[in-house]
Design a protein that fits this description.
The chain is mostly helical. It folds into three domains: 2-115, MazG-like (Helix Hairpins, Orthogonal Bundle), CATH 1.10.287; 156-232, MazG-like (Helix Hairpins), CATH 1.10.287.1080; 236-285, no CATH class. The protein is built from 13 helices and no strands.
């Protein structure tokens, strides 16, 4: 239980400095240390690793986004807690490995936020939102360059491979665009989109699935570029399209059920008609 008592000791030191021993964040760090304790902890929590927990971390981030999308602040509070637990979980495992602890995580992000906001914390002139966004990217580039090693450095370093593919495509193209590898306007991007559609159609005709997969990937990448050029988050746009599909298909299911049927008992023509009806109803509601 050494990690548990170490967490309690850390809490005691911080509490003396802040006179806030009952702060919930200290309790959460303590709970996680207790769960990971070799003596009396939780068997499931003890056997977890960074790799095994990573999918849960990603899932919790998506659940935060979902609560925001639904405008459910009560659910958002709960989901943010679940996401915070993931941070504490990773920090506890790192502490056990002698790498860092939760305080180090907080300290690092504190330093980063003050470093990237010199107009707030460093006496520089106030920036507009656009000026701040450009300055933020400039600081990030400088930080990446400082971490890189010689000829191995690339502008595309540091874009996590584990990101959702559309998000990563948008970020990769944004990095390249910042270096001048950019179409002059959205018109040229749309022309490239049409070109990729034609290439996909040609490969579908050949029946070569490997080539079809490659061309489909190119099409999706350019689609992410269209979104970036229009200042639209491609993941956000696709989430909205998914929600719309679920809503309209639900309309089809309800209408068929009212007639005593199901989608499996219907045909495409009937369901297309109901889909059009669902679209019209949404348009009428505004």
């Amino acid at each position: 239980m050494g990690s548990y008592f170490a967490a309690r000791a850390t809490r005691s030191v911080i509490a003396k400095a802040t006179d806030n021993a009952a702060h919930p964040i200290f309790r959460l760090v303590e709970i996680m240390a207790r769960l990971r304790a070799a003596d009396g902890g939780c068997a499931w929590d003890r056997e977890q690793t960074f790799a095994s927990i990573a999918p849960y971390t990603i899932e919790e981030a998506y659940e935060v986004a979902d609560a925001i999308e639904r405008g459910d602040l009560g659910d958002l509070r709960e989901e943010l807690g679940d996401l915070l637990l993931q941070v504490v979980f990773h920090a506890q495992m790192a502490k056990e490995a002698g790498a860092f602890d939760f305080a180090d995580v907080a300290r690092a992000i504190n330093d980063k936020m003050t470093r990237r906001h010199p107009h707030v914390f460093g006496g520089e002139e106030t920036r507009s939102p656009r000026e701040q966004a450009l300055a933020w990217e400039a600081v990030k580039r400088a930080e990446r360059a400082a971490r890189a090693s010689g000829s191995e450095a690339s502008l595309l370093d540091g874009v996590p491979a584990a990101l959702p593919a559309l998000t990563r495509a948008e970020k990769l193209s944004r990095r390249a665009a910042a270096a001048g590898f950019e179409w002059p306007s959205v018109r040229e991007v749309l022309e490239k989109l049409h070109e990729e559609i034609a290439e996909l159609e040609a490969e579908i005709e050949t029946g070569d699935l490997a080539r079809v997969r490659e061309e489909l990937g190119d099409l999706l990448f350019v689609t992410a570029n269209v979104a970036r050029t229009l200042a639209i988050d491609p993941e956000d746009a696709l989430r909205a399209a998914n929600a719309k599909f679920v809503r309209r298909f639900g309309f089809i299911e309800r209408r068929l059920a009212q007639a005593g049927g199901t989608p499996a008992q219907s045909d495409l023509a009937e369901m297309e008609g109901l889909w059009t009806e669902a679209k019209a109803a949404e348009k009428a509601r505004g």
